[in-house]
Amino acid sequence: MHAETLITGATVITMDDTRRVLRDGAVAFAGDRIVAVGKSAELAGITAREVIDGRRFVLTPGFVNCHVHVTETLIRGFIPEALPFDEELERWVIPLYKGHSAAEQVVSAQMAVAAMLRTGTTTFLEAGTILAFDEVMAAIADTGIRARTGRWTEDRAWDPAADGAGLTQAAMAALEDDLERHPQDGRRVAAWPNLIGHMTATDALWQAATALARRSGTGVSAHMSPVPGDAEWYLANTGQRPVEHLAALGVLGPHLNLVHMVHVDAREAALVASSGTHVTHCPGAAIRCGYGVGRHGLFPEMAAAGVNIALGTDGADNHDMLRVMTLMAALFKDARRDRSLFPAHQALEMGTINGAKVLGLSDTIGSIAPGKKADLVAHDTRRPEWQPINNPVDQLVWAADGRGVHSVWVDGVRVVEDFRCTMIDEEALYDTGQAMADAILARSGLPRLSEWPVA
């Protein structure tokens, strides 16, 4: 057998069907596919153009980030922590975000992608909030990452004088056009008909976007119920809680990814489970924003009912999926005083194979197995947080973080090598990003608030 790249001597956390962990393991890949996985001795007969000594590495599948706002990066750290949820969105987040130019959205997305690649994420599902859609799509494609993306899509006419039907028609026309120009046809970066969610989409838009996703084999991702406000609105306006109303519309199902889902009740959780709807939890965002997830979140119950739970990093603050996995492994142990909840191996499943299921790509990514895409992460273990190595899965989640990612391959292409992106000029990007951030904040007219004086 011949391969283009052969990594030998590594510890391989395969995430395959039997969840094998191979010490002195080897992985061979040719083109964009893995051709062999096993003990190094078993792959000794393979000839390869490039042979990598992997003895210092733990190899994992690429992480799958199922909820990330890639075009918020330039406002990182600017929004005050202690704001009420509605004020944060209406006065700070949305005006700042919509004040970006197309060029600023491009740089923001590139910075987010660099942060993801450098910490081991090889695939992401964007939150459905891109404004300069074509420009950002081109910029993402040039980085080497795999992605499913969506534009900012809503249609509810809050002004009674507005043309509600026209808003719905315009939203659907844009989504259909996106899928035509960026189809999910095997390319790494493709469009999905994502929705903002919450209460911003009419029933007509929910049903039309769902029909489009089912026809095209894509999916819909939408925010729902991070705080009680979504349930309060739906109860007041439909007489049903949000997930009950979506069920009545016929839009639940394996094509749908509902994000946050903190303030749901047992009936809603049961509907998610019975319909095959996916749920993405963003524990970092939930804790930082004080959603009350430890007190109210039914994630243990949803997991026990068979709901496929994936993980996301959400906003601009952090795009390191290993930090998110650590939070997931810790959060409900403490909240429920039950140390059996979400052990490290289950958190790792959420960040890999479960995320692949959300994207409909579990036969392609999410594990290291012959025939799957060569999306791999090499974690450098010659670091103090890794030594000694006694249980690589537990240590990956509890001790390591993304700073130990040495190399990353997507489709067999090395997009991170020796801790640096190979397809992104990081130094130039950071300089440009800082200048653009300064300009955005200056234009906003919002105050720079800090608890401590900044001289």
TrEMBL record:
InterPro entries tied to this protein: Amidohydro-rel (IPR006680), Metal-dep_hydrolase_composite (IPR011059), Metal_Hydrolase (IPR032466), MTA/SAH_deaminase (IPR050287)
Record's keyword annotation contains Protein biosynthesis: no
Keyword set includes Membrane: no
Record keywords: Hydrolase
Pfam short name (any one): Amidohydro_1
The Amidohydrolase-related domain, residue ranges: 58-415
Top-level taxonomic group: Bacteria
Family: Belongs to the metallo-dependent hydrolases superfamily. ATZ/TRZ family.
Protein's recorded name: Amidohydrolase family protein
Biological source species: Novosphingobium soli
